[in-house]
Amino acid sequence: MSKRTELERRLAEFPLVEYGFLRSDQVEFLDRVRTICREQCPRYGTSWACPPAVGTVEECRDRCMKFNKVLIFTTMAEVSDITNLEETLATRKGHEEISRQVEQVLKELFGDCLVLSTESCSICKECTYPNGPCRHPEQMYPCVESYGILVTALAEQAGMAFLEDYNMVLWFSAAFFQDEETGK
User: pTM for this structure?
Assistant: First the structure.
């Protein structure tokens, strides 16, 4: 059985809504996504998972290009009101746990990988950035958008839905990995 077949078999064991694969060179890295971070996100400049702490978009792209494949996957959570930010963000913990489990599978099958996930890291009540090192670098996933990747475009490229519903939250992760069997 190929590693890719085994990966897909194991992914079927997780409560994923959808998943898709792209070559890493198909992922677009855009400086304008950082403009959105800088101008609209309150976590900008306050977290190791966000800009400017993650480095320039070019540095982020270079990290991702060390791998030839990217797995994009989603989980979904139901909330009573998606505009209730506290309730919505509370559902993220389940997605992060699934991301951790998927990361373990990727590491078992393919070795090193780079996982980007949802929003800004919330492991610590207060981030040490910029005054001290990250307390949990092995657990912290940088935000997909912090790398300059537009999630809606990534989903579209992978043929995945990007649905919005009043009571449903769709969480995305992108895991870059090296798959020698599929080349390119």
Answer: 0.92
